[in-house]
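Budget justification aside, the reviewers requested a transparent look at the raw inputs and outputs of the sequence design task funded under Objective 1. We therefore reproduce one unedited record. The lines immediately below are the structure tokens for a 300-residue chain.
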């Protein structure tokens, strides 16, 4: 446990409109292409969540979640942002603020994200005058939000402009991030499930609290499916233990992929209770297209 206590884990999530360069930026920083699906390669857009790991120059580590920008895949974006510590709001210099830029920022606000930065990509495609106009527009858009006073870092993944400044800002933000509590019950919301040949079903997610060890008995809620941890991997490393704040892949014994649903939570037995009733605080966004009428049905 002492080793876990000494290493803070920070998760950075991307956000922004489709085709604003989120995935290209992650690849420029980490060398990892987070678009792994054939359809993503074919269409040139991110559909599912992508994951990468970045070792910063000062020794800190970032887990990166690359989210889709297209409006059709907004539920996938929400699944990724739910576990992040920092958000990188990506806005392309040639287009500026767009519909999913606004929607993604709203989602981050609703999910309680408090820290982040703004990255203006594709700066090699515009001149200085246009760049200044876009920066001014971004500042007006961010006024009154949690990103109101943050730096806007101009970056070109093509020329390398701004990459060093971006790394410096990421180091500063990571150092200021409060570590998640390792104490408490183990909770891992599932954002992806797949089958690894020769090993069986694997679930991934960001461990929100507690820790888990190889050999532990676990269960998926609310389905109540029992399993045992066969293996653990974090940031491409095989581990015996994973703890709060880490991007975690857990190999589960005795479960089929078809039994696992995104949004379920992996826990130790008898530590979390399921319920059919909840109290919620509802925040109706100013830009929402339809009002919420009395006795309306909603999907939560």
């Amino acid at each position: 446990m002492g080793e876990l206590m000494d290493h803070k884990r920070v998760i950075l999530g991307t956000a922004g409109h489709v085709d604003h360069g989120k995935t290209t930026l992650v690849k420029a920083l980490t060398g990892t292409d987070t678009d792994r699906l054939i359809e993503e390669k074919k269409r040139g857009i991110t559909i599912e969540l992508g994951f990468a790991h970045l070792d910063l120059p000062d020794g800190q580590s970032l887990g990166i979640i690359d989210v889709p920008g297209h409006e059709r895949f907004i539920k996938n974006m929400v699944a990724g942002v739910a576990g992040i510590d920092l958000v990188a709001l990506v806005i392309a210099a040639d287009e500026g603020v767009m519909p999913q830029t606004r929607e993604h920022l709203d989602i981050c606000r609703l999910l309680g994200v408090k820290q982040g930065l703004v990255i203006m990509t594709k700066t090699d495609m515009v001149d200085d005058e246009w760049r200044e106009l876009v920066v001014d527009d971004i500042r007006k858009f961010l006024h009154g939000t949690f990103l109101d006073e943050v730096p806007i870092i101009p970056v070109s993944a093509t020329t390398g402009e701004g990459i060093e400044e971006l790394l410096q800002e990421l180091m500063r933000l990571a150092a200021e991030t409060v570590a998640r509590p390792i104490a408490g019950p183990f909770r891992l919301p599932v954002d992806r499930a797949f089958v690894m040949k020769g090993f069986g079903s694997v679930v991934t997610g960001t461990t929100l609290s507690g820790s888990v060890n190889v050999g532990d008995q676990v269960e998926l809620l609310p389905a109540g499916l029992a399993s045992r941890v066969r293996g653990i991997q974090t940031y491409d490393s095989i581990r015996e233990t994973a703890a709060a704040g880490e991007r975690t892949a857990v190999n589960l014994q005795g479960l089929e992929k078809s039994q696992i649903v995104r949004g379920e939570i992996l826990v130790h037995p008898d530590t979390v209770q399921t319920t059919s009733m909840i109290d919620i605080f509802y925040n109706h966004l100013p830009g929402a297209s339809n009002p919420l009428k009395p006795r309306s049905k909603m999907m939560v």
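The helical segments are 2-5, 22-30, 38-43, 74-81, 99-110, 128-142, 163-176. Residues 1-6, 37-47, 69-73 have pLDDT under 50 and may be disordered. Computational costs for records of this kind are itemized in the attached budget.
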